[in-house]
# Entry
Amino acid sequence: MAETILQIAGVLIFFSITMGVVRLVIGPTMIDRVVAIDMLTVVSISLIALYAHISGRFVYLDVALVYGLLSFLAVLAIARFLEKGP
Amino acid sequence: MQTLIFRTAAPYLTGLMLMFSVFVLLRGHNEPGGGFTGGLIAASAFGIHGIAFGVPAVRRALNFHPMAIAGFGLFVAAVAGLPSLVFGVPFLTGLWSAPSFFGISVDLSTVMIFDIGVYLVVVGSFTSIALALEDREHD
# Structure
């Protein structure tokens, strides 16, 4: 049962990454791409959490936490840049 | 940035990240982490504070100039090598002691002092870079 759930989670994460990359490539405006990057970050965090569970090394959860905090800073910096105009 | 939600959330986020950076710093010897990673997390915490409230607020909050913090960290890291002079072992050799406080033994080492020095160097230099970049945008 648990194996099935993990496999379903992996497939969902794969499709989320595909959708995010599609939006990143075709995104007409800059804002679409920023949102796509943020979404890809969140999906990557869930991928790291899933991998931490599969491999049984819970050190990766800290990596996910740091990644979340730092990606927030990155999106913030880009938003600030967009607010002022290039 | 004039956003109410972000301005309300930023102090909590900054405090959380600073606390987590100290946790990563102190855990660093046996598990992933250490002075450099912790310092980067603390510097990005100051970066978030700077984006939310502006550079002068961060300079007020830091109390010292960031480069002074970096210099003090370098001094601490160099001082961590001095106890090896007393014991007659090569410079910066890790020396351990385990004093017990109230029945709990706490492992202390010169490695940790060196790591704290690295932490302060990274915090100081990266915060100084971030603040300089923020400042220049207003010119």
